[in-house]
Amino acid sequence: MIYLDSAATTLQKPRGVAEAAARAIRTMASPGRGGHGAAMLAADTAYNCREAAARLFGVKNPESIIFTLNATHALNIAIKTLARPGSKVVISSFEHNSVLRPLYSMGARIFVAPSKLFDPEDTLRAFEMRLGGAELVVVNHTSNVFGYILPIHEIAAMCRSSGIPFIIDASQSAGILDINYTELGADFVAMPGHKSLYGPQGTGILIAKYGSSLIEGGTGSNSKLPEMPDFLPDRLEAGTHNMPGIAGLAEGIKFVSSVGTSKILAHGRELIAAAADGLRQIGGVRLYEADNPEHQAGVMSFNIRNVPSEQIASELWARNIAVRAGMHCSPLAHRTAGTLEQGTVRISVSAFNTKKDIYGMLRAVGEISRKV
After folding, report:
1. Which of 92, 149, 94, 147 is nearest to 346 (CA)?
2. Quick check: 247 and 18 in contact, CB under 8 A?
3. pLDDT tens, per residue, the chain with 372 residues
C-alpha cells in the first residue's frame, strides 16, 4: 500500500512506538495510583514524556504538558476555559470543526477573518480588521486541507499587544514546524499525538499554564478534597492515563527530536513539490498549491474536473493508494477555497514516505484522469 493520509493519522511509525506501547501494557499500572513498582514505572514514563515534549516545544515547566485523548479534547479544554456565551471570538477561515463546533455549542459570537488561500499578508489584514473587542482568538497553524501555513507568530504578536487570549491549533504543525510556546506567548497550544508526533491514536497534548477542568474525577492527588486539584497537570487530567499511548508517544517525540523538525519539513516539501510537478502534467487536474513553498507544509489538495473527490479517492484505493477526500472536517477552508461542493482529494506525507510513493500516486492519477 502507498499511504498518503498522514494528515489524518501517520500509519508508519518508528519501530520503538509499538514496542513501547506493548511494553507498557505488560509492565505499567497507573501514575499516582500506588507506590509499587508498576505504578512508579508509569509515573516515571509519563514524566519523561512530559519532559521530552517540553524540550521540543520550548516549554519551561514539564507540568504544563497536559495529556489528552486527541487535539479535539485539548481544544475543548482550552476553548471552554476561555470562551463564554456571547464572547467575541475571532478565528481564521481555515479552522477545523474541532474549533468551530465547541464555539458554536457554547453560543460564542464567532467572527471569521476571511482571507485568501496561501496569502499570509491578506490573512494578517483580515485579523487586524476584526480584533477590536475580541475576547479570544483561535487559529489553525497549518490548514489540514491545503497545508497553508498561517502567519502564527505575527497573529500571536497582535494578541499579545492587545491583551487578547490566544489558542493555537497545532494539529498539522506539531512535529513539522518549529513551535516555541514561550516565544509565542499563546495561552494554549493543542495537538494530537497520532499525526506528526508519530504516537498512537488516542493521545494528544495541551500546553497550558492554567485551565478549567473539562471533566472531574480521580487524580491520585488531594483525594480528600471534593473539587479538582488547583495545580497542573492534575487539574486537567482526571481519570486513568493511557499509559500504552503515552509510552508510545514518548518514543514518537524522541524520533521527531532526533531527526529534527527542519529536516522533516524539508523532506515533506520535497515530496509535495514532486507531487505538484507531476500533477500539473495530468489533464483535468486542478491543483491547490502555494506560489511560495514556504507557505505550505506536507499537505496538498487537488481535484479532477468536476468529478466528486470521493470517487477519485475510491479509484485510488482500488489501486492500493490511501488518500483522504471530501470535507476533511473543515467546511470553512473549503468555503474559502471554493471547494465546498466538491471537496478535495488530499495527499499528505510523513517522514517515512519516499518519491517512489509519489510517483506511484502520479501514475494512478493519470490513469484515473483518462478514465473519468
Report:
1. 147
2. no
3. 999 999 999 999 999 999 999 999 999 999 999 999 999 999 999 999 999 999 999 999 999 999 999 999 999 999 999 999 999 999 999 999 999 999 999 999 999 999 999 999 999 999 999 999 999 999 999 999 999 999 999 999 999 999 999 999 999 999 999 999 999 999 999 999 999 999 999 999 999 999 999 999 999 999 999 999 999 999 999 999 999 999 999 999 999 999 999 999 999 999 999 999 999 999 999 999 999 999 999 999 999 999 999 999 999 999 999 999 999 999 999 999 999 999 999 999 999 999 999 999 999 999 999 998
Looking at the fold, whether 238 and 347 belong to one and the same domain comes out as no
The arrangement of strands across the sheet holding 88-92 comes to 65-68, 204-208, 188-192, 166-169, 136-140, 88-92, 109-113
- CATH number of residue 290's parent domain: 3.90.1150.10
The cell numbers describing 140, all together, are: 489553525
Cell of 360: 506511484
**Whether the predicted model's global pTM rises above the 0.85 cut:** yes
Establish whether the linkage from the previous residue to 62 is cis, with ω within 30° of 0: no
Q: Where in the sequence is the domain holding 296, given as residue range(s)?
A: 2-10+260-371
Q: Give the orientation angle of helix 37-56 with respect to helix 243-259, to 10 degrees.
A: 30
- On whether both 79 and 6 belong to a single domain, the answer is no
Name the strand (E) or helix (H) holding 167: strand 166-169
Residue 279: name the closest of 320, 328, 312 by CA.
312
Q: Are residues 206 and 63 in the same domain?
A: yes
Which of 235, 259, 283 is the last residue before a domain boundary? 259
Integer Cα distance of 116 and 326 in angstroms: 20
Helix then strand count (H, E) for the chain reads: 12, 13
From CA 273, how far away is CA 253, in angstroms rounded?
26
Q: Provide the β-strand partners of residue 126.
A: none
CA distance 35 to 180: 35
Cα-Cα-Cα-Cα dihedral sign, residues 203, 208, 214, 219: positive
